[in-house]
Amino acid sequence: MQLAILGSGAIGLSGAALAATNGHSASLWTRDPEQADALASGINATGAISGHFPVAASEDMAEVLGQADVVMLCLPGYAHRAVIDRMVPLLTHQQAIIVSSEISFSGLYLQMQIAKRGLSIPVIIWGTTATTGRRTAPDSVWLNSVRQNVDLSTIPADCLANGMALCATLFGERFVARENALAIALSNVNPQNHLAIVLGNLTRMERGEVWGQAENVTPGIGRLMEALDDERLSVAAALDIPVKTVREHFHKSFHVPYGSVSDMNRAMHEDGRGGHGPATLDTRYVYEDVPFGLLTSALIGRICGAPMQLHEAGIDILSAVYGEDFRRANDLLDVLGLSGISAAALRTRLEQGVKTPGMTANS
């Protein structure tokens, strides 16, 4: 299969490498013409996947999408709307679409724009990325891990079986079927985890220090992660949606002995898989995860009558630290028409999407 990847950061490069290990080829869209030139000789991957993988790359989105069987969005949440608006006019009804990973109901926004064109293309959404790592050069990526469990759903939800089969073909048997996009939203623990990590390491980030992420998930930071997780679990319970705990997330995703969040992060660090935390305040841990992750979780909590006080406080604290109002930085939620919606109506909206003629479970 030919995969078009929109985004050329660590997740885009590692996604191309992972697809290549399963026998597929990739083309990457990048805004940077110099990176496109560098990628002409292929991707150099080290870590959990090692090797040299041929790819094509271009700053011309139409060129990248033109020959693709599958399109995968691999960008931070703050770029989703703008790129979706550029991408949708270029799509054809034969293509499949993956959002890696879905945040702030961007999959619903994408499906709505597709429906406006009269196309019957289901949107496959992941709860997190299939890989973790960092880009070390324009054409190089270090993979910290390849996740063995990635939650997956589709919009509309009745296209789930085909979405699971397609992603397994491209990236291996690592996907866990979830009933709808609401389950995906509530299964994403990255924003809450990153909130705790940032709050505990702000001065390191501001000074540009190099520091280990997992080794600095101290017992206190681990307890904050688990308290944030208690809020998420309360919201999921109110909506009768089963989700893994944050402890189960670390245990299953990173293959460490089950224990406290701090203990499991220490095990990752001792195994050489702890990774590095942000060395700058300009990080997706804040600019993506606060307005697009925490804000969305807090909205769901208010809708179902289970307020998330720590999440709300985290948004306000980091807004004060950065001198920016992160509550006004989300460009997706307002256009989705969720103001005043009930929990039942939200579930229906996310399960059904916007129907177009001919869209079925076999689409």
UniProtKB/TrEMBL annotation:
Residues making up the signal peptide according to the UniProt record: 1-19
Keywords from the named record: Oxidoreductase, Signal
InterPro entries: 6-PGluconate_DH-like_C_sf, 6PGD_dom2, G3P_DH_NAD-dep_N, NAD(P)-bd_dom_sf, Opine/Lysopine_DH, Opine_DH
One example of a Gene Ontology biological process annotation: glycerol-3-phosphate catabolic process
GO molecular function: NAD binding; oxidoreductase activity, acting on the CH-OH group of donors, NAD or NADP as acceptor
One Pfam family recorded for the sequence: Octopine_DH
Residue span, Opine dehydrogenase domain: 178-321
Domain of life: Bacteria
Coiled coil region boundaries: none
Glycerol-3-phosphate dehydrogenase NAD-dependent N-terminal domain span: 3-99
PANTHER family (UniProt xref): BLR6086 PROTEIN, OPINE DEHYDROGENASE DOMAIN-CONTAINING PROTEIN
Annotated protein name in UniProt: NAD/NADP octopine/nopaline dehydrogenase
Organism (species): Aureimonas fodinaquatilis
